Amino acid sequence: MHSVQSLLTSITATVALTLSVPNTSWADDPIPVVATFSVLGDMVKRIGGEHISLTTLVGADGDTHVYQPTPQAARVVAEADVLFINGLGFEGWLERLVEAAPFAGSLVVATTGIEPIAFGDHDDHEEGHEEGHEEGHEEATDHHGEHGAFDPHAWHSFTNAIIYANNIAAGLAQVDPTNAGFYYQNHQIFVNEIRALKAEADVIMAALPIDKRTVVTPHDGFGYFADLYNLRFEAPQGLSTESEASAADVAKLILLIRKQEISAVFIESITDNRLMEQIANETGAVIGGKLYSDALSSEDQPASTYLDMMRHNTKTLSQALGD
Rounded CA gap, 306 and 46, in Å? Predict the structure, then answer.
């Protein structure tokens, strides 16, 4: 079994580390797998189907940033054949969990192979937008150290979601080669659905007026979506909801909203709405709707799957900003 340090080194490098272990389960028994959060869990479920027994550590409407591993979580991870993580520093509690387990299965880092956005790239991209945004943007750089060198919210790119699916299918097929054909069949269906939704979103976002492309959200979780559709996201918090917006950050953001006459701000499912409501009240902006960033919704809400989340976010942004 690899040491905790070697596991964490692999995570930092966003390289999927596969540890070969004997599979003593019967061929017809679902293999036990764990996903760290709900977005990733939905992808794993889509590909694994009935051949896996899935546990998702941070469920619907849960905030992975502030999650604290429990003894029960450690036991589940210790018994898993595969542990799927996002990587890029998203699961800041992973070291504690691995130490408590210990884990001796296959570790699959879903972001392996993507082109991650560095914090400097966020700034460079945003400099290309309309003039006048510099005031109020300085707060975005104050929180860059929270996750490391890169933005971990890579699933908000449809292209990256396909890479996630590739890694998931490969990870399951390696541990359970008997059902590899099943996993890859589900993978192809899922990838086709992602591509179809991207085509719809491309049309919707292309129709958004050029002067309506600044989006205000509680935390900076939509950088990949912003790059894909030439949007600019502003947030009083940084990349993690663990950070607290300072009075100066909020004041700068209010100034920006007034200067650019931004008509709508958005709340998120994993954050307290009061700050955004305060900002809306002070600027005259309306609450444009709820976006789902780091977690899916419960089944009775509009974002209970990855595809539903992306569809909902796209339509919510378009309806609020396109008016």
Answer: 10
